[in-house]
Amino acid sequence: MAVERQRGGAGAGNKPKPGGNTPKPGGNTPKPRPGTSSAKDASRAQSRPVSGKAGGGKGGSRGGNTPRPGNQRQATAGPRGRSGALIAWGAVGLVVVVIVVIVVIKATGGGSNASAAYTPVTPAAASIVTDVTSIPASVYDAVGVNIPSRAQPNPPIVLSNQPPLTLGGKTPAMFYYGAEYCPYCAAERWAMTAALSRFGTWSSLEVTASSHTDFAPATATFSYRNATFTSQYLTFFPVEQYTNVPNSSGYTTLRNSTKEEQAVLNKYSTPTFIPGATAGQVGFPFVDIGNVALISGATYSPLMLAGLSHNDIASHLTDPTNAVTQSIVGTANYITAAICSSTKQQPTAVCTSSGVQAAAKALKLS
Prior knowledge:
The chain has helices at residues 39-44, 79-107, 126-133, 137-143, 183-196, 259-268, 310-314, 323-342, 348-351, 354-363, and strands at 2-4, 14-15, 31-32, 122-123, 157-158, 173-178, 200-203, 206-209, 220-223, 228-231, 235-240, 242-247, 250-253, 282-284, 286-289, 293-296. It has 366 residues and is of the alpha+beta class. α5 (183-196) packs across α8 (323-342) and α8 (323-342) packs across α10.
């Protein structure tokens, strides 16, 4: 069983019920941890069962604007005929206006269907990829990790005396385990995508949104289902186990973890390494950064991204005073510092930057 949870902050503190390691999203509602969030908030933070049927129904008839053969009256000459002609032209004009309005709405992005069952996964616009993977070093340094409380992310859990993480014969490795429906994963992907871009190159990144019926519904995010990350410093192993497409039992399965990846989950997603965790449960998202640090649950609330489009989020990543940017970049600095610890402080320009050094000091990595 995997449950999505947030560590600390708003919407945090979900204590999962015991279960196996195969998630069944939307099935069980975790109890809140003492002293964190209310039962109401905790229940909202857990995925709920949703129907796989999209809303809708039969569309209205279009016959009113198309005369049926054999039922047309012949226009009467004189004023009546002119009146009929004016009415006919008025109807045509109305149809033209309606069509123009529809086109304008779609062109401006106002035609998104808020009642749709889910947001499809589509290729990310080049501008969005550029914005998130090319955040200026000056922004990382300006944000650091000393951030106003509203935007302050929770730091990763630092491990000690663990061997470097090896997956697929690659060392060091970074492992992500989550789901497209998960709102906490949605928030965390912004920071992971940014942090990893400092060590390599992304290709085939796609965009989507979290569940439309979960906590922080339809949070704009990326998907790693088809993404490729290339780096000379580390290897990234992402698993999106579930889609955001609802079905009768929760969400459709995308990819299960391999035996090797499952072994990482079995060992590190436990109370031994994650305070407050329950044996046999995995919190979405789960991130193992080279066995240097772990993330279990989002480091900042997805509510920070509420109502924002992908472009809204990405286009402000050059502004270190923006609260959303501070949450994303602050988290990215923490992730970067942990990666640097696993890569023996390479690349030097990234790992010795003041923002990353501040994160490393906060995590007591150096």
